Structure formats: structure tokens, C-alpha cells
């Protein structure tokens, strides 16, 4: 089970940051930055994570930096958010690091199944591990900070205990690593956005989906899917990216404010409102009539982990064509997670 790491509220963290950083110089020219993301305003990523982060920047800059948040893909589809930041269509963009298969092969390792057990500390480890690689793999943007989404599991129309139970099913996959896992299990993975996946469930296009707990209910997919595997199967890696030119135009004091919000400390703080919201969804499903939330034996979990090891082996082989030492890269990630007691 995932560890729920207790943290101070984001507001308190923002106040502490303000004391450490101090306001930007009163003479700084006021700038307005656009922050884009893919989820609706009803999702805690918007109101619990990104909006408080943006307000903290505005406060610490003495009002010289204003950030306007554009939710729900207003500036472009979720898969385009790296390009939105790179090209300056958005000054800041929330990006799902595994949404474009093959584009960023190194960071894809962060989404291996059965990898992260603690969202907060795992996010710190993710940011720290990726920093040296980001300078090369995502060189045309400023990788501000990174964090995990809190994880998800499999929700289905029937009880699934072993990977072999997936054979013949059409299942929505959240990322390429999960898709490879499902393919090895004999399932047919389907890549869909969260909202499209929920609609596909209603139309009977898919038999199961990989989803977090509360989002499942928020989008209504729980009407058709009543079996829920109580096992943290995957976590999505995410990043806040900044356009390099937008950053370069800031004053020295304003850059200090941005830098104070683009670090491992914020990586650890940011995901918790999102994680806690999803855990509320799990608690609700445990009590919901007609729904079965079930655990599996250690032996069964071992079957899932063995399949995940095969996914890792295949990934290591695939990245060799890019002259990447996959075993070294993944080993470094595991070591960093262990350092923070965040490994699965």
C-alpha cells in the first residue's frame, strides 16, 4: 500500500518561502505569465496544486509576477503541452511526461509499474534523479519541478487477480509502460484521455481502465466498472515546464522567486492535495453499494511484479538504440527512491 506522507499545507509552505526569499524589488516591471494544464477546474490539480503555486509566486514577487491559469486544454491538447512551453504559447505548462511515447525515453523509466510507494518523497526523488538528464532530454525548456500524480489501479467489469486475467480484454492505458504490461498479459491496451476513457466505458468500447480512485467517480466511469483492484499499480510522472525566453526576460529578483518555486521542496509539496483527493475516492468506493474493492495474495502480487520486470527489461533493450544505458538509468532512479524511503 502507498504510504500517506503527512506534510504542512501548501499555504504554510508558501508563507515560509516568502520569508526565505523576500519580495521582488518594487521597481521590477510587472509581467503576466500564462500557465496551461489539461484538467478541469473541479480537479484538485487545478484548485489545490497549480493555483496555490501560482499565487505563492505572485505573493513572493510582491505582485510583480501575475500568473493566469488556463485549465481544461484551453491553449491546446494535453499531449501538446511540452510544445506549448517550448514555443511560448504558454509561459508555463503542466506536462504528463509519458504522454508522447518514444519522445523522452529516459524519463519514461519513472513510470515503470510498482516503482513508487510514497507520493511526496517519491516526487522529490523524481525531480532530483531527472535533473542531470533534463538538461539534455528536455533542453529546450526549463524543467521547473516534477511530481507524481498519486497513482492508480485497474477498475473493471469483472474481478482481475492475475495478469493472465487481462487476456482478451480491451483496457485503457495511462502510459506506455502500462500499455506494454497489458500487451504482455494478452490484453489490448487503448490510449485514451481520461474523459474519452470514461465515455468509452459507457459505450462498451473498453472492458477496464487504469485510473486513480476519485477521478473514476468524477467522470462517471464507476457506473459500469464495479470491481477495483486495491493495489497501487502505476504512477504518472508530471512536470511544470517553463519557456526559456519567458524566464530570461524576468529581472534577477523575479528569477529568484521562480527558482524558489522550481525545486525539490515544491516537488514534494505539490502533489499532496491531489493525492489526498484520490484517496478520498478510494474511501468512498469502499462504502459504495454494488462495488467490490479487493486485495490479492502476496503470491498474486508476485505475478504482477514479475511481469513488470519484463516490462523493464524490454524498456532497457529499446533505449539502447538511443545509446542510453537503461540499467544504469533505472538503477539510479531506484537508488534515489530508496534514499528517500519511497521505493515500492
Quick description:
One of its GO terms (biological process) is transmembrane transport. The protein contains 13 helices and 11 strands.
Could you explain how this protein is built, in words?
The chain is α/β, with parallel strands linked by helices. It has two domains: 10-148 and 237-277, D-Maltodextrin-Binding Protein, domain 2; 153-233 and 289-319, Bacterial extracellular solute-binding protein, family 7 (D-Maltodextrin-Binding Protein, domain 2), CATH 3.40.190.170. Helix content is 44%, strand content 15%. It has 13 helices and eleven strands. The N and C termini lie close together (9 Å). Mean pLDDT is 93; it is low at 1-9 and 11-24.
Please work out how many helical segments DSSP would assign: 13
**First-to-last CA distance:** 9 Å
Poorly predicted runs are: 1-9, 11-24
CATH topology of the largest domain: D-Maltodextrin-Binding Protein, domain 2
CATH C-level category of the largest domain: Alpha Beta
State the CATH architecture of the largest domain.
Answer: 3-Layer(aba) Sandwich
Secondary-structure content class? alpha/beta
Using only C-alpha atoms, the radius of gyration works out to 20 Å
Tally the beta strands.
Answer: 11
Shape by Cα distribution: globular
In total, how many domains does the architecture comprise?
2
What would CATH call the homologous superfamily of the largest domain?
A: Bacterial extracellular solute-binding protein, family 7
**Residues in helices, as a percent range:** 40-55%
* Biggest pleated-sheet summary: 6 strands, mixed
Q: What is the H-and-E element order?
A: HEHEHEHEEEHEHEHEEHHHHEHH
Give me the side-by-side strand order of the main sheet: 7-6-8-5-9-11
Question: How confident is the prediction overall: mean pLDDT?
Answer: 93
What percentage of amino acids are in beta strands? 15-25%
Organism: Pigmentiphaga kullae
Pfam family, one: DctP
Protein name: TRAP-type C4-dicarboxylate transport system substrate-binding protein
Keywords: Signal
